[in-house]
């Protein structure tokens, strides 16, 4: 295991890499946590490492002790900074990874971050979304039924209920306003055209997010993506009693990307 701090927006983010065995250059996964990130999915990281993948996990700016202010736009930039870090030749050499084979795996809000990053970076080889939260898409739907002010209040309450103690430099209302400001630009279906050329794994559960994820699967396939894999597991948002099944599905999908 290698630990480091990766700078984004002038702030150092706490990060670690599970380095796979062997001297050859390994493909790499960037593992993206949710909001606020209580479920880190590090069991999946160990499983992926065991099958030959380097896995980088980090905490966004302003989350879980990483300095700086948390926001969704900062998080999007943070993922870009991590990708750039792995592509630097000296880092790729030290971590024994192939910077041309980077895959994003995101849970909940991490799935949201993965979609944004993959859409902006055509060199990302694939995206795995685990109960991905289409936060802007949800905000767009809320604003279609209520005024912007009412939608912001409702979204702020939802975010506050998730537990924001591990996040700094932000408020529920401020984050809801940010989602409102980017409701159409960050929505999943608006990213289908940019992602359609790459493999995508979409795993859903009984947590209320399956419909939005299903709509994204449909949008990707309609855009021409023939490499979309969808799987539903009857469990909760953290996949509490389906960890082995989740891991097996993820490893099967990753094996197709080697």
Can you give a write-up of this model?
The structure is a single chain. The relative contact order is 0.14. α5 runs antiparallel to α6 and α6 (148-162) packs across α7. The mean pLDDT is 97. It is built from 10 helices and 8 strands. α4 links the parallel β5 (97-107) and β6 (126-130). The radius of gyration is 17 Å and the shape is globular. The longest helix is centred in the first third of the chain and has 16 residues, at 72-87. The chain is of the alpha/beta class and 258 residues long. It has an 8-stranded mixed β-sheet with strand order 1-2-4-3-5-6-7-8, sandwiched between helices. The protein has a single domain, classed as 3-Layer(aba) Sandwich (Rossmann fold), CATH 3.40.50.1820.
